Here is the input.
Amino acid sequence: MSKAFAPYDLAGTRLAHRIVMAPMTRSRAYGPGLSATELMATYYGQRAGAGLIVTEGTQPSAVGQGYPDTPGIHSEEQIEAWKKVTGAVHERGGVIFMQLMHTGRVGHPSLMGLTPVGPSAVRAVGQVYTHQGPQDFVTPHALTEAQIAETITDYAIAARNAVLPERRPQTQADRG
Ligand SMILES: Cc1cc2nc3c(=O)[nH]c(=O)nc-3n(C[C@H](O)[C@H](O)[C@H](O)COP(=O)(O)O)c2cc1C
Here is the structure.
């Protein structure tokens, strides 16, 4: 048997084979809450035969959004909505991991009502696709050191949100 079709132990997660679906933004989290939709559950469920699915890039915070209708994993509504997707994949025996994606300065106020952020107030050259069509990148807000620390925390919280509660590793805070 070709090695590609042999099972693989990914740090304790058993993959039935080694063919992995790459993360692909689909822009289907329609609606103001930017939550996973039924269409997304159908789409990922249909691909549960992959050894591992990596989801489309998912923003860990509102300001991390860089494309229209991309899903988030930072609100309660978003966490609940993703369970439809993971449920559809798990029901068919699949494995799904989330890609967290903060797009930094490659965003636009018309997408998220916020000024994108970056390490410096330097505008990227080019355009971003928005609901109003392509628009020039804007000058981002330069993050302060405290805001960089908050962004790191946003990632950590989002990573935890992406794991089903019963599978989350306990933290010191959980143990009391
Ligand atoms: C429609 C589309 C959406 C994509 N969205 C993402 C994404 O959300 N995150 C990411 O890391 N890569 C994204 N990519 C890149 C793919 O994951 C992949 O790296 C790319 O297609 C090259 O694959 P290859 O090296 O196997 O040819 C996207 C690609 C496509 C075609």
